[in-house]
Write a structure and sequence with these properties.
- The protein is of the alpha/beta class.
- The chain folds into two domains: 2-130 and 253-302, D-Maltodextrin-Binding Protein, domain 2; 132-252 and 309-336, Periplasmic binding protein-like II (D-Maltodextrin-Binding Protein, domain 2).
- It is 42% helix and 19% strand.
- The protein has helices at residues 2-13, 16-30, 41-56, 67-80, 174-185, 187-198, 209-217, 229-237, 266-277, 279-287, 306-309, 318-336; strands at 32-37, 59-64, 87-91, 103-104, 126-138, 163-166, 203-205, 223-228, 242-244, 250-260, 291-292, 313-315.
- Helix 3 links the parallel strand 1 (32-37) and strand 2 (59-64).
- The longest helix is centred in the last third of the chain and has 19 residues, at 318-336.
- 44% of the residues are buried.
Amino acid sequence: MRRIAAVLSLFLALPAQAQDAALIAAAQKEGKVVWYTGLIVNQIVRPLCEAFQAKYGITASYNRHDENELAMVFAAETRAGRMQVDVMGSVAGVTETIPVSEMEPYTPASAKDYTPDFSTPDNIWRSTNVIIHTAGINTNLVKADDAPRTYQDLLDPKWKGKMAWTASVGMAGPPGFIGAVLTTMGQDAGMAYLKQLAGQQVINVRGTPRAVLDQVIAGEYPLALQIVSYHAEISAAAGAPTKWLKLEPVIANHNYIGLVKKAPHPNAARLFIEFALSEEGQTVFQKAGYIPANPKIRAGYPDTKPRDGGYQSFLLTPELAAAHYQEWLKIYNDLFK
């Protein structure tokens, strides 16, 4: 143990450039890294893996699952004692379902410019990108002057039975919306608001927020809640009649990345995390239309990043989600289903 500690101390004392070279050499010797993620494959997962592989010559493979499936797959591998994954992806709410005992704290050198709110206090999870959840409209069905500008505007009788949101019970769905309302408005005022909103008969749609937005674009609904801002930007750039709305504070969530403690390729995993958070890796997120976590990199659609878009956001942290998720889920089931 003393010898290992001495080697580790020596490694940490090395200049950053020497550390990088040592990590790269060790990662290249392992030759492979496996990433489990809920991100969209063609939009960002494959491009990021290809960029990493081109830079380091290390095979980067992935396994894509919806957010709630990520924890189940990870748990199955843990129980079987046959860990296949090196790097776990997650979002607020799901991070708390993955045992901390199975994850390794890691402080990437490439994250030195990130503010503390882009990582969890235990140093397990690091944000790769920001997700802005807000309302979106079909611009053929809703005139600009008629679009909601505040949460209170959603209570206008003209929207009764015309608003839709995903029936997903993750932070990207109604529980996240409910949590943001209760936290920002206060428990009493927030509950009063939610009861009024429930009277608006919000339509539950099976599928992801992206799928709900697609139905809005198709004219099935004029207005959706909890869509993702850059999804609307991507569709609008392709000519679709849609626009996302800045209902302040907009709800922010993060996609996270973390090092698995029993990773089969631990050095390649560390290098992959370093790359994903670096300016080079974050530029891949930017080009894919995402909102990079790195403060030095603007969003692919600049207006979607709160700082550049000039609007306020409310962050649903993993800690907040863990403490109140069951409460928020119950409110959704009681009021909106």
